[in-house]
């Protein structure tokens, strides 16, 4: 399984050399086997990519993110097809039952709240606040009709920040860090969805008409607390430095619990998406689901 995340800054050109990515800067060259690469994050707006390289990156289902001037991902390259049984998978996905979608969304929201509780415990938040989230977790219904997710989020973020903190305020440095980390995770999930032969625009709960990755917006929810935990434990300073952005990118190599084992986030995403396919395919799908947990979260060290 591919694992390497390539971060590109201050590079002249990227091209294909046999079955490797060739990165060139001046007289220096670096070659990386395509089979090792999970994703490439390009922050250099002047870097040149050859068409032949782009085609091979697509064939290898390598996620490519191009960032804008503020270093946030702006463009994502994904292959047109990524699975040998893609047509069959798509037809199956279009028939996913609404009842099963409702149950799955309940489990996703419950797991997200559980993972938020574990972050609160790491931060030694007072027990009454934690208990409020645990109560909300037990009250989640199919499709979360009572919006326990939003209620939990308000208590959760207010436990760490003052009353002037709003997630919608992009000028707050912590929000910039959270958004950067979420964007990386969202893109990694979208890449895996395509690799599994699913339609990324058709979600379980999210139905945004202008969102081509509704399914990724669903699946990311229990993974968000990983980014939260890092930003809380290692808060950014006045701006997101290159080193800090690299740490956020490398959260994909952090280890979390899934299916009774510690796995990297990259591997956990693959397992979780695969279990969703199995969940909708099996008669008793609940037993097929494998949800990611943060109770044994270990950050990747550069």
Topology, please?
Layout: E1 4-8, E2 13-17, E3 20-25, E4 28-33, E5 37-42, E6 48-49, H1 51-59, E7 63-67, E8 73-77, H2 86-94, H3 98-122, H4 127-139, H5 148-158, H6 173-195, H7 214-219, H8 224-233, H9 242-249, E9 255-258, E10 261-264, H10 265-281, E11 293-298
Parallel strand pairs: 1-5, 2-6, 5-7
Antiparallel strand pairs: 2-3, 3-4, 7-8, 9-10, 9-11
Helix pairs in contact: 3-4, 3-5, 3-8, 4-5, 6-8, 6-10
Describe this structure in words.
It is a single chain. The protein has 302 residues and is an alpha/beta fold. It folds into 2 domains: 4-77, CRISPR-associated endonuclease Cas1, N-terminal domain (Ribosomal Protein L15, Chain: K, domain 2); 86-298, Four Helix Bundle (Hemerythrin (Met), subunit A) (Up-down Bundle), CATH 1.20.120. It has 10 helices and 11 strands. The protein has helices at residues 51-59, 86-94, 98-122, 127-139, 148-158, 173-195, 214-219, 224-233, 242-249, 265-281, and strands at 4-8, 13-17, 20-25, 28-33, 37-42, 48-49, 63-67, 73-77, 255-258, 261-264, 293-298. The strands form 3 sheets. A 4-stranded mixed beta sheet has the order 1-5-7-8, covered by helices on one side. It has a 4-stranded mixed beta sheet with strand order 4-3-2-6. A 3-stranded antiparallel beta sheet has the order 10-9-11. A hairpin with a 2-residue loop joins strand 3 (20-25) and strand 4 (28-33).
The chain-level mean pLDDT equals 92
Give the C-alpha Rg: 20 Å
What global shape is seen?
Answer: globular
Order of strands across the biggest sheet? 1-5-7-8
CA(first)-CA(last) distance: 21 Å
The total of beta strands comes to: 11
- The CATH superfamily of the largest domain is identified as CRISPR-associated endonuclease Cas1, C-terminal domain
**Class computed from helices, strands and strand pairing:** alpha/beta
Write down the CATH class of the largest domain: Mainly Alpha
